[in-house]
Amino acid sequence: MSHRIAVIAGDGIGQEVIPEGLRVLTALDEAHGLGLTFEHFDLGADRYLRDGTTMPDALVERFRTEFDAIFLGALGDPRVKSNVHARDILLGLRFKLDLFINLRPVQLLDARYCPLADKQPEDVDMIVFRENTEGLYTGVGGQFKRGTPDEVAIEAEMNTRKGVERIIRAAFAFADQHGHPSVCMADKSNAMRHGHDLWQRVFREVAAEYSDIEAFHLYVDVLAMEMVRRPDRFDVIVTNNLFGDIVTDLGAAIQGGIGLAASGNVNPGRCSLFEPVHGSAPDIAGQGLANPLATLLSAGMLLTHLGYPELETRIRDAVRQVLLSGQVTQELGGELTTSAVTDAVLAALGL
Ligand code: NAD
Ligand code: IPM
Ligand code: MN
Asked: Does ligand 2 come within 6 angstroms of the Cβ of 277?
């Protein structure tokens, strides 16, 4: 058995956290004979500024046919104002590999790091299914009379029957398989009559097939409020691409901070991409301040994708132990460097 993993550290703190993730993956590989192989790809702002390369189609094709997973740090660099490289690489891979599920767990591991009063780990334990291949992210639209007083800029939201149905189905199937009692769908159908009416109809249709799962709807503004006020209401949340982006940063905050939020960009059974939810954090890059835990939890999700869910559980348990013992980076009130936190996780794993 062997599993091929493409590694794109990318920009800023991506260069610091990905090596930490690789230390943990390599240690687990050695302990359990998983047969992981890693190939590094020099993609990101430096490469773009050097030779103009962002994400060659031939490479996307190699990822699709030769790799089981991609392990990515972050993309975004103040020197690339247009952010073209990040869009081409990150959104390019999500779209071209058809990674339609952006899976983002929101799980409080240690109550001390929750900014909400009196919340316990059991209160903040949900998972967001963010649609990842359409919505407002496709670039459909255009500019007219750019740079003049009459200019027009249109960004069209694309909602296809296929796209909406497959993410809603994925959310219900997950709830069913993992024993989650409810699925909440969030949209803005009170204001957006066309696309979000489609979400409403598909949600009702699919929900009808799962009589044991409570299906409820919230407008996304109310979802944002309720995630803060009563996070215990939520188990599985399904929503569109942009709303999913926004509510998962909110989710990151209530689970203890952006340095703890993990994600997978998944098409089941196909080459899928795992990355922390946070960005390249240029404000702290290169100083050993980056929290590696979001990346380690993302590595855990990658292992589940490869067929080792028990190893994801072990990583999560080790991260919980490290948080409880206060061995954390500065943004969580600790004093440890990026690699010292990983040392603590490896020790908790017994590796
Ligand atoms: P960001 O997530 O990079 O940073 C937001 C804040 O959180 C900053 O103060 C940063 O220091 C802090 N932070 C983030 N990750 C941290 C970590 N691991 N440990 C400790 N602190 C951490 O968001 P931003 O500043 O809006 O974006 C910076 C760049 O990253 C932009 O170019 C943006 O487009 C890009 N970005 C990329 C991704 C991705 O590659 N998936 C995600 C989000 C943002
Ligand atoms: C994320 C990021 C990206 C997104 C950006 C960098 C395009 O914020 O992965 O959450 O909006 O999807
Ligand atoms: Mn985001």
From this structure: yes
